[in-house]
Amino acid sequence: MGVILDIRGLKVFYGIHEAVCGVDMEINEGEITAVIGSNGAGKTTIINAISGMVPRQGEIRYSGAPLPAQANRVVRQGVVQVPEGRKIFAGLTVEENLTAGAYTVKNRKEIERLLQEQYEMFPRLKERRRQDAGTLSGGEQQMLAICRGLMAKPKVLMLDEPSLGLAPVVVNEVFHNIQRICQEGITVILVEQNAKKSLSICDRAYVIETGRVVISGTGGEMLENPEVASAYLGTARDQ
Amino acid sequence: MTFQLFISGISLGSVYALIAVGFAIVFSILKFSNFAHGGMISACAYIGYFFLSAFETPPPFAVTVLFTTVCGVLLALLVDVVAYRRIRRKQAPNIYYFLASITIAILIEQILSVFFGKNLYGYPAIFKNTTFNIGSIRFSSVDTLILMVSLAILAVLLYVINGTRIGLAIRAVAISPSTSRLMGMNSDVIIVVVFAIAGALAGISGVLLGMKYSVYPSLGPSMMIKGFIASVIGGLGSLGGAITAAVALGIVEIFLTYWIGSLSAPIVLFGIMLVFLAIRPEGISGRFAKDKV
Q: Which domains does chain B have, with CATH numbers?
């Protein structure tokens, strides 16, 4: 497996505040990489920096070549983010949301094929395709957000807190689908506060604290790691 | 007579609708009231006039509209570069957009006053007969033409917004510029496209108003107030609401003018407005366009 995203010395400043302070990460092609850490550690900022949503310093190489810094060009290259809080376009229908996701796809037939693909994966979206997306339940909105991301034909899909605010049953469904997406050959970066669940499905994981990588390793190693266990899995003591 | 008033009201309302959607489309994206639109309409009315009178035999109506539309687009892009682009780069609060747009509106009106303010300019007549009859009902040629053109333009606009890729992008950016960027949309480009569309609408409404009334520097601003009202009654940012409200406004205005005269009509009209806003502040469409956070 090659490295699809190679991140070296990534820094992000908000004014004078350094939110990400020199992060190195290697994202392997075809794997699920989990990025875990507590609220405010800088996880979202890292993927926003990859997406070109915030100005960044440092180097990001994508399949060997530098990744563009402008958000719209990053998407065109196949690096797509499903944002935290789902950010569904309320007021647009389910189908319009999906079509908006395929903005970078010019071919109408291809868009139609992608739509059918999503509807096959989530028949509920098909039932509601003419409905205002704002009226969907939280779980359905998360599915829609993921499908909208898939409409851009990503090579790398970055999911920001996909389990946030969802019922446990729905969380299981979401995680199951993330694994399925990975099996289809899409590289997944999973940013999560739900450490236990994400470590159990990921190939590799990075723990972020105050803008730095503090621990990294395979999912299995991390689950065994006493530091990770105490800080993020809530087994030893509460942080 | 009632039917003729009705037609005339719809015709007037359709021009208000063109102005209102020009207003509403910018509001939906940038959440500010683009008062420069009125100045643009005046400028385009003059451009249309001078284009028509530059030739021995006036060029066809369609050519005039096309020329003015192109000028409207160019003017809008110029205003964007001069007044709005830097505000956008600095991500300044919307109040700066608002101030810049008022400044531009006054600037254009004053420039026009300095150069052309002394005279009223009347468009050369494009019809031999100012009216025609269908059965016993008499129609005004100019009003009918205005109605046809406005409806056609509105239909095209609604198609672009609701049926095309760029239209979907405009609606997406209106809902959330940052999420749109994650879809690969270049929100800066979309914003410029929206200004260009508004400019085209200003160009067309400028010519139509110039044909209906004589041309004077505050023509655009005074008409724009009606378009602005329509877009507020319609629910700011909603195109369908703006069109409905504009046509209703045109009809009410014509009937009021007929019954109580052109001086008193605005008093009642604006009175109705206030009552409407008190009862239903969210507008006809029933949705507030949410402010940018």
A: 2-130+138-279 (1.10.3470)
